[in-house]
Amino acid sequence: MADYPIEELGGLTPLQAAHTPNMDSIASSGVTGMVKTFPEGYPTGSDVANLSVMGYSPKLHYTGRSPLEAVGMGIELDPKDVTFRCNLVTLSDHIVYENKTMLDYSSDEISSAEAAELINIINKNLSGNRMAFYPGVSYRHCLVWKDGPMEFEPSPLIPPHDIFGKKIKDYLPNGRNGQVLKDMMERSSIILPEHPVNKKRIEKGLNPATSIWLWGEGTKPELPQFFNKYGLKGAVISAVDLLKGIGRCAGLKVVNVEGSTANVNTDFKAEADAALNELKNGIDFVYLHIEAPDECGHRNELKNKVKSIEFIDNLVVGPILKELEVIGDYSIMVLPDHPTPLSLRTHTSEPVPFAYKSSNYRHNGKSINKYDEISVKESEIFIEEGYKLMDCFIQGKFNGE
């Protein structure tokens, strides 16, 4: 949700401009502060940020993005396996691969069904004894290289959402190991454009998936169990495999919600209902991750970003707050995992605002009446190491009060 001030919004951020009475209520009656979810020198990816928010220090536990997604997809990994995120992207039609331009990192958020057909044909043509492709959700897929190398140039490999509108030549994998990946990416650009799925997408005015893009290399992580850390039975709800993977690695129950997507068209109500259902049926803690504002940031969709924030407030935070008060003692916290500014279309590392409220908590610090990046900066609380935020949430104790 976090962003920069935008001229079209009269100098407000999307979070400032959105109507968010429920998040504002949490801020005004509880605790607010800023938290830094990225340690210095780490990639500004959702993997690092969500590990931090979930209570795991990336300095101790980060082994790459794609293995978390692979685990979320149910792929069995050996310790020496190297995994990669495999995006289906839209590149320009320049005849020389290196001279193509990154037009769309998501192929217009291609459907999972269409993508599965394309990844299956890629697997048929490009996999070997040590490599296999696995279909995931929308444009997000996985390559597993059995006993593969971890030395690549550049390191880490470049995410496609970081190079929108740029010629890909300077961002391709290179070096001895990288050349293997680059060759597969280039070969995919010959296979994919001719596939019937892409021809139909073009007829509908949608971006075709014209290439794979490999990045996010990593090896299988080992996370301490959430229950062992905090003594709570937990669940994670998300539309994306990355969060499911973190949840599974942490021993959390992964809850799949019908109608849950990674964009503004997700079933917000169903996600809120699923969270409440878990809490009513013996789960102590729910980590509910909603991707919509992030995708809008990547796609530079201003109206949809504001709309998605308002949907979260009205259809998720509001109903959950109301039901929690009926259930009994509770704690609730709202925050973005990282900023995704519309103007940059990628993640940044600035601290993000959090708002916390508990049925048993009375805040004696400075009162903040509006939940947004600018207002919360006035709070007296700043958490430098993001992984410590979960301890604050569980214990109901925040430094700086």
**Largest sheet, if any?**
5 strands, antiparallel
Order of helices and strands: HHEHHHEEHEEHHEHEHEHEHHEEHEH
CATH topology of the largest domain: Alkaline Phosphatase, subunit A
> Number of helical segments?
15
CATH class of the largest domain equals Alpha Beta
Oligomeric description of these chains: single chain
Mean pLDDT score: 95
CATH architecture annotation of the largest domain:
3-Layer(aba) Sandwich
Number of strands: 12
Strand content: 15-25%
Distance between the termini: 25 Å
Radius of gyration, CA atoms, in whole angstroms: 21 Å
Report the helical percentage. 25-40%
The CATH superfamily of the largest domain turns out to be Alkaline Phosphatase, subunit A
Based on helices, strands and strand pairing, what is the structural class? alpha/beta
Give the overall silhouette.
globular
Q: Number of domains in the coordinates?
A: 2
